[in-house]
């Protein structure tokens, strides 16, 4: 951007302001660098003429020529003490120039604590000071800036609105000054109309002119009236603080450093070249441009370029900009004679722009990053202070001892680790192993998370903000240590600290066991959402179940899946916090008693069994923010621990029966529901989750006395699929039975509180519960469900009179031999918004799965495409690639704004860059090879194409089609002479995923994969062209190794069967190319990366129905083409074993409902294209790299912003930052 006329420029930690010619300061200008300020005359970007320098606590007036000092006029301290005074030798002209410099509006600067700035909302920043300590603290002198309206206000404020004499407003070039009431001009004032270039002195009423006193195009003619308006004094001596001596520029070397660092002031050159000119090594590469400024704050006043920050920088310089803005704010007093406040504005706008950016665009300036590292002055940070003055008085010593955050220098970290070794783990110096080091390190990190979590929750409570509560039956959070260390910005500090203790941090990561709290994409998505909610500073809580055992640990024995118990808590869990003070009764069975009060029927549920849900919290840190939220998991425990009477009678088993019965409820994720007992246990899990969660939400809501009607203003509850849908019924029960509300008022609250996310397009996957089962376990809830259904069907009848199909389809009750409750219908009826998770999925909900609901309430249905957390799925799992992006961009801010990667498109044509990219890919392959050697005992060649399909095993995901093609490829290789095999790119095909224990065909697919691998891998004739590996017990931790190593990843579900998928997003993010169908998020990925950079094949969703009908009515021998028949016959021949007939029968008897037979040919053709492209390494690298840098849309940060705006209506609440001194910390005391 070419700067002309008046403009601002921020580059390499330095700020420039002034008159510009061809991108170089020429004329009067301002330069600020690292607490040093220069105001003076410039020519061609260099100091040239008279100038004033401010640094440390001194003023210096001197003369420069072409960037070099040639004369010293005066040198003095702020307090007036003279160091050098040559003014007697200067002529009057020079003294006049110095005097003008001294009184320039450039120089009327002050520094004030940033704690006084307040982020009012997403578009407004407010700075103020109390007028008088004895007056109402809401009446203040202040400044308010609104970027959305391009509006600046200055004057007396009452409740953040201008209210008093002498206020000023700038709004898109128009200017107001006068007397204000409730934010509007009332009384005498002056108005400048920019479009007409006219000043008007008038009498105003609520900003409307009621009497014109005088008009002029010349502001000079109104100057007297202008100065008669009293202007409040915001900036006075009480707010002044001395400018600190810079730690970098000491007084003894300032002159030499100054000329070297300032003289190359060339904003036209690139960051790369600028670093070459600069004499300061490792200076932060930060660049901001503000311009072109042609009038005071019109629409185009600011054109902000994203920040570029180098990570490999000196520990002090790294924090210079952040600390500077964090502790001080440059401002200028308003000079009404010129009516200019430019210098004030540039700092104000700069800081506000940085503060207001959503985290998906950039990180808040005052982030945790500012306070991390080994710098000793960062190790005694004062926490924000919340609470009552009475509490402070009663516990003054306690408050004092807890006023600092834990220090993060190496020595302090080591001391904390060692303390946990001895006092938390009870280990000695002589009995201390790697697992103990992992546990101690985790405890020390958790300590920091607890500090932030406590402050976050206190601040949310003080702000009385609306919160979102995310309910999910699964949370696949993955390992916590690496994620937490990275998000806190402490990886370097902990790496050094642990290394000196004799361990490697990377080795400690592997000691952690994956929490077995989920099974697939549903749980992993929920975990990504929590990461983004914390990172984006949204007030949120996650709620789930603390399963003692995961779904199962997958073993492969004789090629078959064997399920083993997955007791992930065997070695304890250092990350969780058991909340003995947070537990709630949960009731089951019993009966409903009716009684009448004041002529109204009341229902009382008398439970037959009561257990207790106890809370366990896992802190979830945001990335480089002090906001930390929590995942609260419920564990079932008995209401009475021990039946002592039965024990004394000798019935020892009965004495423990109640305990065991209660603990069963949360023992296993997804108990097998093929039996009545299994179904009942699963329903108990779901009710325990919603009952305990709602009691917890209501407890928090009732902390402040308010009317129940305000619940939707303070609470948003999101149902992650239908498992928590009983929350709708449970909250209705509480409001009616316990709080005494009418049905109508209660339902009005319900329908504004809940949101529902659907995750399937398969009707058979929609959850339903038998009426008998639900009525037995939750009798009152069944009554309420019938009541909801009655009211809703009356509305359906009114809208669609006589339409019995609509009544049947929309009813909560599915009629049949076994009556069932449709939980998806309940979720839709009780929610104010229903969203799908990919565009095609959301369209199918409207046109197919929930067509009748959509016709009933079309505005209720929206789409929010899924996303994944780039912190875990790129920065953490692919650290070499992340560092490369840091280096190329000069910043790590892309982690919060993935669209920044798009600026690297020119690297697609840079062969050296592509070679770097593919070298990292190869290193990731080598890491996977090491893992495969350890867990699969298979040797793999890193130079082969890595073809990966890892996900839950299911027929619609079509791992079956993949392995059929592998056999087809093997047969082609065997039939091709050796010299002709060059057309086949050597390939290693990886499968991974679990089959549900009762899903026979899924288990058969696993068996076939391993049988084929056994044959192919041992065929010496072809195994250097083709190998097959099944990766056992696929989970989050193994995915972090597998995904970065992919060349091709397969996402080949039948069109219209996959809601979205998120593994496809992870693979693309890591530079993998997709082989996929027109299904789920594949379609949107193709739009982002371009069809030339993805391999798409197969039937489209709109074709599937006709193709299935055709399949049913066709002879299998005609429907299935010859190449696939050859594969089927080969399998039947027994070459891969004799137990695969049942699996083959699933597609050969007019029952190929997932269209394997139809899509196989197109699938094989796509594989040929892959072989051809892989031969051209540079073209392949270009496409892989392009995929990665175009994956920004699929960050969960974007997804969460959409939920916040479209469904939850919540705003970020940023926890106040710590300060380096006690006086400046943020305080809320009552």
From TrEMBL:
**Top enzyme class:** transferase
One Pfam family named in its UniProt record: MORN
* InterPro entries documented for this protein: Glycg_phsphrylas (IPR011833), Glyco_trans_35 (IPR000811), MORN (IPR003409), Pyridoxal_P_attach_site (IPR035090)
The cofactor named in the record is:
pyridoxal 5'-phosphate
Annotated CDD domains: GT35_Glycogen_Phosphorylase
Q: Name one GO molecular function term.
A: glycogen phosphorylase activity
What protein family is recorded?
Answer: Belongs to the glycogen phosphorylase family.
**Name of the protein this chain belongs to:** Alpha-1,4 glucan phosphorylase
């Amino acid at each position: 951007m070419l700067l002309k006329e008046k403009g601002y420029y921020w580059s390499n930690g330095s700020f420039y302001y002034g008159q510009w010619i061809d991108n170089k300061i020429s004329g009067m200008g301002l330069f600020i660098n690292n607490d040093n300020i220069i105001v003076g005359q410039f020519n061609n970007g260099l100091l040239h003429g008279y100038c004033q320098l401010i640094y440390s606590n001194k003023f210096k007036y001197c003369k420069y020529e072409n960037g070099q000092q040639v004369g010293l006029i005066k040198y003095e301290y702020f307090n007036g003490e003279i160091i050098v005074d040559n003014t007697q030798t200067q002529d009057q002209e020079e003294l006049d120039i110095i005097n003008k410099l001294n009184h320039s509006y450039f120089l009327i600067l002050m520094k004030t604590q940033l704690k006084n700035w307040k982020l009012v909302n997403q578009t407004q920043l407010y700075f103020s000071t109390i007028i008088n300590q004895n007056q109402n603290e809401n009446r203040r002198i202040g400044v308010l800036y609104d970027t959305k309206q391009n509006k600046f206000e200055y004057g007396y404020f009452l409740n953040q609105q201008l209210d008093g004499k002498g206020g000023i407003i700038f709004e898109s070039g128009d200017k107001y000054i006068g007397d204000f009431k409730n934010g509007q001009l009332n009384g005498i004032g002056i108005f400048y109309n920019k479009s007409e270039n006219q000043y008007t002195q008038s009498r105003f009423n609520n900003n409307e002119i009621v009497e014109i006193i005088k008009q002029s195009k010349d502001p000079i003619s109104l100057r007297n009236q202008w100065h008669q308006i009293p202007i409040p004094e915001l900036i006075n001596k009480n707010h002044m603080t001395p400018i600190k001596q810079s730690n970098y520029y000491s007084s003894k070397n300032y002159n030499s450093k100054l000329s070297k660092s300032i003289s190359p002031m060339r904003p036209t050159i690139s960051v790369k070249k600028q670093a070459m000119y600069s004499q300061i090594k490792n200076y932060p590469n930060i660049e901001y441009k503000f311009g072109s400024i042609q009038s005071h704050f019109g629409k185009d006043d600011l054109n902000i370029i994203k920040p570029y920050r180098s990570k490999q920088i000196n520990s002090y310089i790294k924090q210079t900009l952040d600390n500077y803005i964090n502790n001080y704010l440059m401002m200028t007093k308003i000079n009404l004679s010129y009516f200019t406040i430019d210098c004030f504005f540039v700092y104000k706008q700069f800081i506000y722009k940085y503060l207001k950016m959503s985290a998906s665009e950039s990180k808040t300036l005052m982030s945790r990053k500012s306070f991390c590292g080994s710098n000793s002055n960062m190790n005694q940070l004062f926490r924000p202070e919340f609470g009552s003055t009475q509490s402070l008085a009663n516990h003054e010593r306690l408050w004092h001892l807890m006023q600092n955050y834990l220090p993060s220098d190496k020595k302090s970290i080591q001391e904390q680790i060692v303390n946990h070794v001895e006092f938390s783990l009870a280990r000695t110096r002589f009995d201390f192993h790697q697992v103990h080091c992992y546990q101690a390190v985790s405890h020390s990190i958790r300590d920091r998370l607890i500090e932030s979590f406590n402050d976050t929750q206190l601040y949310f409570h003080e702000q009385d903000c609306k919160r979102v509560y995310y309910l999910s039956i699964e949370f696949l959070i993955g390992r916590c240590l690496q994620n937490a260390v990275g998000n806190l910005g402490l990886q370097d500090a902990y790496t050094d600290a642990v290394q000196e203790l004799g361990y490697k941090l990377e080795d400690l990561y592997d000691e952690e066991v994956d929490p077995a709290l989920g099974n697939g994409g549903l749980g992993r998505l929920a975990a990504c959402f929590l990461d983004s909610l914390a990172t984006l500073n949204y007030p949120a809580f996650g709620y789930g179940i603390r399963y003692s055992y995961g779904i199962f640990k997958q073993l492969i024995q004789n090629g078959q899946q064997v399920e083993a118990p997955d007791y992930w808590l065997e070695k304890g869990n250092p990350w969780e916090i058991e909340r003995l003070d947070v537990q709630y009764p949960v009731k089951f069975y019993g009966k409903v008693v009716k009684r009448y009060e004041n002529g109204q029927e009341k229902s009382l549920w008398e439970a037959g069994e009561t257990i207790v849900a106890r809370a366990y919290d896992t802190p979830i840190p945001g990335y480089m923010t002090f906001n930390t939220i929590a995942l609260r998991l419920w564990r079932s425990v008995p209401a009475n621990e021990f039946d002592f009477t039965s024990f004394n009678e000798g019935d020892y088993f009965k004495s423990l029966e109640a305990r065991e019965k209660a603990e069963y409820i949360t023992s296993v994720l997804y108990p097998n529901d093929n039996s009545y007992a299994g179904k009942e246990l699963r329903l108990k899990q779901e009710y325990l989750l919603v009952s305990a969660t709602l009691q917890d939400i209501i407890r928090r809501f009732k902390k402040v006395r308010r009317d129940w009607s305000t619940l939707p203003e303070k609470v948003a509850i999101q149902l992650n699929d239908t498992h928590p849908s009983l929350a709708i019924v449970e909250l209705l029960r509480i409001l009616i039975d316990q709080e005494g509300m009418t049905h109508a008022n209660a339902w009005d609250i319900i329908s504004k509180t809940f949101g529902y996310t659907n995750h399937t397009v398969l009707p058979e996957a929609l959850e339903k519960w038998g009426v008998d089962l639900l009525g037995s376990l939750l009798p009152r809830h069944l009554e309420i469900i019938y009541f909801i259904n009655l009211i809703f069907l009356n509305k359906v009848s009114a809208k669609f009179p006589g339409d019995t199909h609509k009544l049947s389809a929309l009813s909560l009750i599915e009629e049949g031999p076994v009556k069932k409750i449709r939980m998806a219908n309940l979720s839709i009826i009780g929610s104010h918004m229903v969203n799908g998770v990919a565009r095609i999925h959301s369209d199918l909900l409207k046109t197919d799965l929930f067509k009748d609901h959509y016709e009933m309430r079309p505005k209720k249905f929206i789409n929010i495409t899924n996303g994944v957390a780039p912190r875990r799925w790129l920065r953490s799992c692919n650290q070499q690639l992340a560092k490369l992006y840091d280096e190329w961009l000069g910043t790590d801010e892309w982690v919060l704004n993935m669209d920044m990667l798009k600026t690297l498109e020119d690297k697609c044509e840079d062969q050296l860059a592509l070679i770097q990219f593919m070298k990292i890919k190869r290193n990731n392959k080598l890491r996977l090879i090491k893992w495969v050697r350890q867990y699969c005992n298979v040797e793999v060649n890193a130079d082969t194409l890595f073809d990966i399909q890892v996900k839950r095993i299911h027929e619609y995901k079509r791992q079956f089609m993949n392995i059929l093609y592998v056999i087809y490829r093997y047969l082609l290789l065997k039939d091709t002479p050796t010299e002709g095999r060059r057309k086949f790119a050597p390939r290693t095909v990886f499968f991974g995923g679990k089959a549900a224990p009762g899903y026979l065909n899924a288990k058969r697919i696993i068996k076939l994969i391993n049988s084929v691998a056994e044959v192919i891998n041992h065929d010496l004739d072809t195994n250097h062209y083709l190998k097959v590996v099944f990766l056992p017990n696929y989970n989050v931790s193994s995915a972090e190794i597998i995904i970065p190593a992919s060349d091709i990843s397969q996402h080949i579900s039948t069109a219209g069967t996959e809601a979205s998928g998120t593994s496809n997003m992870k693979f693309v993010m890591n530079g993998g190319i997709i082989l996929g169908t027109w299904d789920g998020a594949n379609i949107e990925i193709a739009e982002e990366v371009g069809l030339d950079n993805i391999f798409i094949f197969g039937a489209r969703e709109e074709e599937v129905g006709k193709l299935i009908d055709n399949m049913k009515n066709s002879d299998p021998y005609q429907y299935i083409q010859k190449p696939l028949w050859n594969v089927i016959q080969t399998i039947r021949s027994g070459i891969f074993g004799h137990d695969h007939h049942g699996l083959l029968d699933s597609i050969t008897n007019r029952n190929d409902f997932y269209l394997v037979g139809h899509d196989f040919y197109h699938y094989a053709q796509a594989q040929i294209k892959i072989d051809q492209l892989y031969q051209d390494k540079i073209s392949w690298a270009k496409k892989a790299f392009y995929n990665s840098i175009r994956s920004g849309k699929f960050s969960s940060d974007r997804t969460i912003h959409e939920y916040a705006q479209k469904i939850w209506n919540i705003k970020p609440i940023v926890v106040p930052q710590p300060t380096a001194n006690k006086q400046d910390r943020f305080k809320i005391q009552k």
